[in-house]
Design goal:
The protein is built from six helices and 13 strands. It is α+β, with helices and mostly antiparallel strands and 185 residues long.
Amino acid sequence: MTRLRISVVLAAAVLGAIVMGAVAEEKPLPKGSPVLTIAGRTANWNRGAVVPERDGVLQQRQIRFERAMAFDWEMLSALPQHELRVVTPAGEGTYTGPLLVDVLKASGAEAGKVRLIGLDGSDTELKAEDLTDQNWILALVSQGKLAGFGEFGPLWLMHRPASGATPSHEEIERWIASVFYIEVL
């Protein structure tokens, strides 16, 4: 009986590895310049490891990975878009972008915690329940046009505030401007 149990466990492990391998997939490269890279516990990828000569910002932040999923504007814009009307440090405005959970799903991210990093070095970690309880978006568009670097872009992590249109100080602290990297922990 013990040998049978061991055989069943081994067969299940091998089958699980085969199924997981079948789900993992190399995706096409972005057509434009990447604005977001997702690495860590993801199944999909379209780029290899960090190359110091090419990946200056990643190198400067000491970010390392063997493979990752890079997104350009076109790829992010192709995902379903969601609109938020909120009061931000820049004033009241309308912001549009994909849900963070949709971007993570496109990378094949495993459920769990994520860490987002902005170009200024600011970062935040979101637990799985944060991702499902709040509709976090990566805002690409501010006031009807692509968000630039001086406008908290090119990607601004934000969500609909619990208090209505005006976020609390604690909520704003978790909003990351100029997100360029997400690590799935």
